[in-house]
Amino acid sequence: MFDKSITAYEEAKKVIPGGVDSPVRAFKSVGGTPPFIDRGEGAYLIDVDGNKYLDFIQSWGPLIFGHCDKDIEEAVIKTVKKGLSFGAPTVLETELASEIVEMYDNIDKVRFVNSGTEAVMSAIRLARGVTGKNGILKFEGCYHGHSDSLLVQAGSGMATFGTPSSPGVPADLTKHTLLCEYNNIDELKKCFEASDDIACIIIEPIAGNMGFVPADEEFLTQCRKLCDENGALLIFDEVMSGFRASLTGAHGVVNTKSDIITFGKVIGAGMPVGAFAASSEIMAHLSPDGAVYQAGTLSGNPVAMAAGLVSLRKIKAQKGLYEKLNQKVTKLLAGFKKAAEDNNIAFQVDSRGSMFGFFFCEKPPRNFKEVGTCNFDRFAKFHQEMLKRGFYFACSQYEAAFMCEAISDEDIDNCIKAAQEVMAKL
């Protein structure tokens, strides 16, 4: 069933560390060999052995219309024929920035970069430049890319300054990073009591990298309040939830507004792109208008801009898109939940818009430590058996899942039926 993928994986390991270019793709958490993908078609992935999978990852979020969407594909091909990159301004950048800005009442300007990691790194530098402070406050389990100062691990239950979680990251580069438990207001307050040098809070308002764990409304309110009281800025990392949880991401489903937003994924429709956005007052500090330097040779790449522009315009043109996607998610998760209950399996589900997650545990986890108490062995078995039946979910319980428009009700019915078979064997 996976013969060609097994061969491809062995060949890849000879020339690529671990055989993959991003660690989670190696299937270490769930076992087995990762299928090597040949192509995507709408809701499906097809691997090099010819196996077909209903795709609930969608390139980790960007493909809200599924693989090879005709309109996005045409825009990319048309733009490619004009040239791949110029290192100079294009009208496409202005058009995409305008589409984003007009959706929000708290941002006026956008700067495009090449990835979510780059967007977050630049947003933090901007916050430090605006406030004149050095510290950043992040939350255990929230992933903000792989830049050095954000690769830190938490202390033992108390807010603490970060220590590197990866060899190769000097402690000097993480000493300004404070850590706090997600959804823990007491620890949040202690961080501000411990330091008067916090430039910003950065948070995934809907966390997708400790599994799917939304922040409590009151917790976000306190983040906003403490930033305002202490001269810090609030950054919402919406690289994953942006244009996924709603038309305006988490901003459309929570009551708290941030000062800076970081984007990625959907705004490139599968092309490498990221962005950060804020008010005119904050963005005035950014080079060339201000002193905070930020640059990139391929930033605002015309092919990526064309793909993102068509994607966002399609999203805005389809009234009720997010309601339809959430109905599909709700139907899928209700089917999974019933299958688990029928087999006396502890199982939790949650969703926002087209973004969702599930855990094998007794009660909904609210932070990284609680996610760690879930049954990972059971998740791995579920993943393996669903993959054999043609359903492709994230290969770690620490990841979220995504619904795309191309997935049909019949696809969901088939997936629920497969889950019932698998749950009966767990």
Automatic annotation (TrEMBL):
Q: Name one GO molecular function term.
A: pyridoxal phosphate binding
Q: What class of enzyme is it?
A: isomerase
Entries under InterPro entries matching the protein: 4pyrrol_synth_GluAld_NH2Trfase, Aminotrans_3, Aminotrans_3_PPA_site, PyrdxlP-dep_Trfase, PyrdxlP-dep_Trfase_major, PyrdxlP-dep_Trfase_small
UniProt EC number: 5.4.3.8
Main localization, broad class: cytoplasm
According to its UniProt record, what is one Pfam family this protein matches?
Answer: Aminotran_3
**Cofactor(s) in the UniProt record:** pyridoxal 5'-phosphate
Q: What reaction does this enzyme carry out catalytically? A: (S)-4-amino-5-oxopentanoate = 5-aminolevulinate
UniProt-recorded name of the protein: Glutamate-1-semialdehyde 2,1-aminomutase
Organism name: Malaciobacter marinus
